[in-house]
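ligand=4'-deoxy-4'-aminopyridoxal-5'-phosphate
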Amino acid sequence: MNARPRPQSEALFDAAQALIPGGVNSPVRAWKAVGGTPVHVARGYGPLVIDVDGYEYIDLVMSYGPLMLGHAPASVTEAIIEAAERGTTYGAPTGGEVQLARKIVELVPCVEKVRLVNSGTEATMSALRLARAHTGRDALIKFDGNYHGHGDSFLVKAGSGALTLGEPDSPGVPKALAELTLVADYNDLASVEALFDQNPDRIAAVFVEPVAGNMGTVPPVAGFLEGLRELCTRHGAVLVFDEVMTGFRVARGGYMERCGVMPDLVTLGKVIGGGLPIGAYGGRAELMNQVAPAGKMYQAGTLSGNPLAVAAGVAMLNELSEPGVYEGLEATGARLERGLLAAAAKHGVPMVVGRVGSMLCPYLAASEVTTFGDVMASDRARWVPFFHGMLERGVLLPPSPFEAWFLSTAHDDATIDQVIEAADGALAAI
Ligand code: PMP
C-alpha cells in the first residue's frame, strides 16, 4: 500500500517551518518519531478528523485526552457559543467558575478546594510551589518516564543510576534547580524509599502520574500508590497525583476514585476544559488556603477561569455525569484491546496492551510492561511501519510509541471494528 499524497499538508508544513520552530506549537506534533509530514487537520467530527487534503481518519489522538465525547459534541459547542456571545473574558469573577469548581469538588474525592489555571503545566508548577511553601522544603521526587508539563523542576531526568540527583533534560533549566528534583523508578517503591532515606527532611513532594500515561499506558502495580501514600505520610511530604490525563478520563473522580488512595493534592487539565485551554490544582482546604489571596503562596492568571473554558468544562462534566458513560468507555476500550491482541497473535507479532478504561497503549513486546525500562525495551523500530500502515488505512495514531491512544463516547463498535481491521492489515505488513 502506498502512502496517499498529501500536498496541502506538505505545503502548510513547509510554510509553518519558516514561521514556527519545527513547524509546530508542541513538539510531538512534528512526527519526529515516525517521520513524514504531519497530517494537518481541517476539522473534526465525532471520532473522525478530516485533513486539509480531504482524507478522513478515525482519530485516536483525540487531542491527547480532553475529548471524551469526540470532536465537536453539540452540548459543548453550544455552551462555548453561548458563553462567547456574553464576552470572552472579564478579569472579574463569574458564576461559571463557581459551577466548575463545585463539580470538581463534588466529584474528585481528595479536593475540598480548587484553583483554576490555564494548562496542565501551570497546574503542576503551582502544586509544586504550594508543596514547597507548605513544607518549607525544596526537593521533590518524580518518576522516570512520568511527564508533568514543561516547568523547569520537572524537565529533569535521572542521572547515572536511578538514585542520583537530577540532571537538566533541556538546556535552559538551571542545574541548581534540577538538582532539587530526585528521580525514582515508576512502580518501584524501594527506589522511593531509598531517596527518602538519603534525603531526610528535604523532600517537599512526591509527584506521580497514578497511571503512567506519558510512556504509553502503564498502570500502577499492586501496593505502589499505597506505598507512596505511606512514605509521604511518614516523612511529612505532600503526595501529588498528576491526574491531568487521568482525571475524568478513567473515572469521574480520576484514578484516585478507582484505587482508593488519597493524595494531598491533585492536578487536573484536559477533560475539565472540554477541549479549551485549562488546568486546575486542588486538595485539602488546609493546603489550598495557603494560596493567595487566602494565603501567602502567590499564583495568578489573567485568563484563569476563562468563561469559555469553564462553560465548555461544565458542559463536558455534565455529560460525563450521565449514567453508564464510563461503563460504555470501558467496553469500548476492552473491545479494542481484544481485537488488537487477536490481530497481533494472528500475525505472530508479540504485543501486550496497557489499558485503563478508554486510554490504552499497545506495546510491541513479548512480556508485561510495568516499568520505564520495559517500555524502552519494546520494539520501537517496528512500531514506525505500524503507525504508517494504520495511517494508510485511515487511522490516525499518536505519532510516537510512547503516547497513549484515547477513545471517546463517539467511538462506537463499528468504528472500533474498523480500527481492528486496519490493525490486522498493518500488523500483517510489518
Ligand atoms: N501532566 C500530565 C500527566 C500530562 O499528561 C500533561 C500533558 N500531556 C501535562 C501534565 C501538561 O499539561 P499541558 O500540556 O496542558 O501543559
